[in-house]
Design brief:
This protein has 72 residues and is an alpha+beta fold. Helix content is 25%, strand content 46%. It is built from two helices and five strands; from the N terminus they run E-E-H-H-E-E-E. A five-stranded antiparallel beta sheet has the order 2-1-3-4-5. Strand 1 and strand 2 form a beta hairpin. The protein starts with a strand and ends with a strand.
Length: 72
């Protein structure tokens, strides 16, 4: 089973570990909360980065735009 961490960066530059070593189901729930919940409404997220156990970026959104994987 793959495990993931979600790191978020606020518009003031502060970096926070939002979700620590979760599976795919919790990952989806966390991303849903981040992109559609109260923090999204506040407009203070600068970056959302998902990394796997190899510390590889598997998903990256900056300034509300998906950067990785590249959108076709």
């Amino acid at each position: 089973m793959d495990k993931f961490r979600i790191w978020i960066t606020f518009d003031n530059g502060q970096v926070h570990l939002d979700t620590d070593w979760c599976g795919q189901e919790e990952l989806g729930q966390s991303l849903q909360r981040l992109f559609h919940g109260p923090i999204a409404a506040m407009g203070i997220l600068k970056e959302v980065k998902v990394v796997d156990t190899s510390d590889c970026i598997v998903f990256l959104v900056q300034d509300g735009q998906q950067v990785f994987p590249e959108v076709a």
